[in-house]
Amino acid sequence: MTVAAANDNDTLLQKKQLVEWLRSKGGFFSNKISFQPPEVNAAAGGIYAVEEIEENELLMIIPENALLTAHVEEDWCSTAELLVSEYVKGPEASEFWPYVQYVFESYPHRELPPAWSESGKELVYSIISDYFEPQRFGQQGSCHEGSEEGDYETMLDAATRIVVSRGWHDVLVPVYDMGNHRNGRWHNMDQLHDSRTQDDFHIVALRRIEPGEQLFLSYNECNDHTCYGKEHSYLTPQLFADYGFVEQYPQRWSFWTKAGREYSEEKLLFDLDVEDTSSSTRNASTTTTPLVNSSNELRVSWISDEPDEFQLKWLDVHLKRLLGMKDFVMYEAERLEHSFEARATIDYYHALIVALQQAIRWASPSSFSLKDDDEQKQTVENTTTELEQESTSSCLDPAAQDTSMNDIHA
After folding, report:
1. Residue 285: pLDDT over 60
2. Among 281, 206, 293, 221, which residue's Cα sits nearest to residue 251?
3. CA–CA distance from 232 to each of 221, 239, 253, 266, 407 (Å)?
4. If you count Cβ atoms within 10 Å of the first and of the last residue's Cβ in the chain, which end, N or C, has fewer?
5. What is the pLDDT at residue 38?
6. ∠ CA(185), CA(187), CA(191), 5° rounding?
7. Of 30, 54, 63, 62, which is closest to residue 205 (Cα–Cα)?
8. Distance (Å, rounded) from C-alpha 321 to C-alpha 331?
9. Residue 182 and residue 162: Cα distance in Å, rounded?
10. How far apart are the first and last CA of the chain?
């Protein structure tokens, strides 16, 4: 049995069937939310408000009998094996069929980094080298021991990617896991309770949400034990490693500039956010990371101490290294078989350049003279413009090839 693929026209129907299935299990899905506003194509992804929602208003209840888990704590493989068995049962025998059909056939698990081509992974490693995260890009591990062959092995690999990317450790939470990720002021829905204290998942609004606004959860700053302690370790690079997209602003970056990764006190840690003067939080349905322009001014907020002179020199050296790689990165990206790999790699390459440049820019005025390097600033701006133009060329055009995946849960 092979894993089938649904076309875009099937996606909305499957999502509506999922809501019906959830309600049949005793769950709740508010009539004030929908999988897309009326003007957005069914394949766009995400959950949206169709009516005004008040702070703390209940959005969903995912009951215990709708959760898919092997009940082996933090054991992804057992849940992956259960997911395969439910898919093999088919629509007549599986009580989870609408969900397992969706995650196998419509969710783009083939675009997750562990399934990337070796050429795609090698290009990412050529960019990050030994200096940047994510050093484990494309590495996931296997849930089979090499004895299985053919379709089962293919399905188990797919199931493992699904559980790792969508699960709360070993637990899959249908429907709620279709929300997209964004932190900061955009993060507007979350669990009411830690999943260790209550069997059902109650999802509430964190603030007032206006009609047309997208609902965002957080993959690393959620109200659950699966997120605890991740706020300073599971950052923009790690999200890229697991999901294959560069998160929208705000982003959180860390750079080990001195003794090495084992000395966490030596790392630079900061948030990078955009002060967008052209739109409000209400217009939050975009799924792309904005480039820096006249209406998008970026700001660094330091979590660690600000960089000293040695660290600023380190940032400058590696910024120059990345800027010098532009032609190589674009050439190699155009040679990749899959356009989603090319686009994601270019997005991350660009995001690294911007993060380094902004870290230098927002260092204390007395720290180091590099922050006033007008020639370097112009080089960064030129590279940003060229990357934007290249990413919309025919070889990387989403309309010309397969569809990109900016936020992968939906």
Report:
1. no
2. 221
3. 10, 13, 9, 13, 21
4. N
5. 47
6. 140
7. 54
8. 17
9. 20
10. 25
**Residue 322: HSE in the Cβ half-sphere, 13 Å Cα cutoff:** 31
Query: E strands along 171-278, which residues?
Result: 180-181, 189-191, 201-205, 214-217, 251-256, 267-276
Res 197: pLDDT: 79
What is the arithmetic mean of pLDDT over 138-145? 76
Tokens of 238: 């790690």
Residue type, 180: N
Would you state the structure tokens that stand for residue 108, as one six-digit string? 């783009």
Would you say the C-alpha torsion 22, 25, 166, 225 has a positive or negative sign?
positive
Q: For residue 181, which amino acid is it?
A: H
Summarised one tens digit per residue, pLDDT across range 155-180 is 999 999 999 999 988 899 999 999 99
- CB distance 284 to 186 below 8 Å: yes
Report the run of H or E that residue 78 belongs to, with start and end: helix 76-89
pTM above 0.90, yes or no: no
Residue among 114, 84, 79 at smallest CA distance from 101: 84
- Which among 68, 49, 69 is positioned nearest to 60, based on CA atoms? 49
Task: Please give the average per-residue pLDDT across 383-391, as a whole number.
Answer: 60
Alpha helices in 273-325 (DSSP H): 309-323
- For tokens 């999901």, name the residue: 243
Per the model's pLDDT, the better-predicted residue between 173 and 44 turns out to be: 173
- Ranking 124-133, 384-393, 399-408 by mean pLDDT, the lowest is 399-408
- Does the CA dihedral 14-17-18-21 come out positive or negative? negative
* pLDDT-wise least confident of 7-11, 275-279, 284-288, 345-349: 284-288
What pLDDT does residue 153 have? 84
Whole-number Å distance between alpha carbons of 251 and 405: 18
Please give the Cα distance from 201 to 190 (Å, whole number). Answer: 10
β-strand 189-191 against 201-205: which pairing, if any? antiparallel
Prior bond of 307 cis (ω within 30°): no
- DSSP assignment of 185-215, as one string? GGB-EEESS-TTT-SSEEEEESS-B-TTPEE
Question: How many angstroms separate the Cα of 134 from the Cα of each of 48, 233, 372?
Answer: 31, 11, 29
Length of the chain: 410
Rg from Cα positions in the chain: 22
Task: Give the 3-state secondary structure of residue 34.
Answer: strand
Beta bridge partners of 217: 181
Residue 119: HSE in the Cβ half-sphere, 13 Å Cα cutoff: 13
